Amino acid sequence: MPRNEPTEVTDGWDGGRSPKRRKAVRYGVPVAVAGVAAATIGLVPAFAGSGSPDLPKISAQDLIAKIAKSDVQQLSGTVRVTTDLGLPSLPGGGSVGGFGGERQGHGAEGQDGSSASPQNKLMELASGAHTLRVAADGPDKQRLSIVDKAAEYSIIHNGDQVWAYDSGSNTAVHSKAEAHGKPGQRHHGPEDLPKGLKNATPQDLAKEALKAAGDTTSVTVDGTARVAGRDAYQLLIKPKQAASTVGSIRIAVDAANGVPLKFTLTPKSGGAAAVDVGYTNVDFAKPAASSFSFTPPKGAKVVDADKERAKAERQHGKDVKDVKGRKGLEDFKDRGGLNVIGKGWTSIATIKGSGSGLPAGKDKGAAGDAGKFLDSIGDKVTGSFGSGRVFSTRLVNALITDNGTVYVGAVDKEALIDAANAAK
């Protein structure tokens, strides 16, 4: 069979195909990539394995359509996770954003159930190396376990039941999957689960990276690979916009069923992948029913998350309900504070400041100490907008002006300054 050669997709890349095909291939990369990279996970790049299998030639359009058409709902496997965003370290071994440092969830934290909170645990995946075990059997049954040397943390979704269990603190959190649709009806599916659980596999990251590609993106098929013992095509996605910090995204796609097996995001600055997620082994047979059953171990502390939420709402009212329903940056948009400027890979999210700004090193007392620390991890910048600090990772950069306005995106420092100047 002929070896697969690179084929490029750029402007107008549906090739005059049917509306259904155009819908399948009009996926893309832009704004979501910053949030995906900052909030989720990666895998060391060694899992492509040796050898490049001979596979029939396929175009980039057809490979993306193959991903879109893939309807695999049953699988189990292991995902090896490593993320290298270059987050600055904080005193005591932690890092900015609460990532890094020692494993959370032991000692006093475990007394109130927060050690088993899905949001807390899944944020740990934004830094360092991890091993995940995953299983799925349709939209109503999923399981994800984070395994480390000391303990195991699992999230289990089975019908209308969701459990989260941290063996380190022997704490379990239980809740009901939320209802959707008409009153009295229940719809259970992946949308009921914590966001991190939905973005913990190569399939999920690939979908985020293929939502709206257009004239800002080059898409090619770049050879083949063996991933988790399976033949795969390699889809290579590159931004055309020079200001982007993303160098490329490579997605290994199962040649037989179209399932993304590996997702690798490499910064333009080079070096190790910033986000690199892939299976080390995968089985597309129906998982055992026991994979999705859970009973709290003897002596475990069990927290009813629904009751705790209702109690907090009674005590604190609407503010707690707002927190429950927040959607990250979109929450600021709902409140009139978020705006997105630019397009494609160089989209920049802006959040209007309150005018108070950040503490400065010249301030007195604790504010001055905080200002000196911020000076040590951020670069002071100036422009017609005034002045501020740029905080950088290997992928996502943020400019916070002295009046508190935030500009953030997977773009270089100069693009943030230009955006601030233009908004003046």
Task: Describe the overall structure.
Helix content is 21%, strand content 30%. With 424 residues, the protein is of the alpha+beta class. The protein has two domains: 8-292, Clam (outer membrane lipoprotein receptor (LolB), chain A); 327-423, no CATH class. Strand 4 and strand 5 (152-158) form a beta hairpin. Helix 7 (305-316) packs antiparallel against helix 8 (318-324).
Assembly annotation: single chain
* Helix-strand category: alpha+beta
CATH architecture of the largest domain: Clam
Distance between the termini: 59 Å
Runs with pLDDT <50, length 5+?
A: 5-50, 90-111, 179-197, 323-335
User: Helical amount among residues, as a percent range?
Assistant: 10-25%
CATH C-level class of the largest domain is Mainly Beta
Strand order of the largest sheet: 1-8-9-10-11-12-2-3-4-5-6-7-13
Number of domains: 2
Largest sheet: 13 strands, mixed
Shape: globular
- Give the integer mean of the pLDDT values: 75
Rg, alpha carbons: 23 Å
* Number of helical regions: 11
Strand content: 25-35%
Compute the number of strand runs. 19
The CATH homologous superfamily of the largest domain corresponds to: Lipoprotein localisation LolA/LolB/LppX
User: SSE order in H/E notation?
Assistant: EHHHEHEEEEEHHEEEEEEHHHEEHEEEEH
CATH topology of the largest domain: outer membrane lipoprotein receptor (LolB), chain A
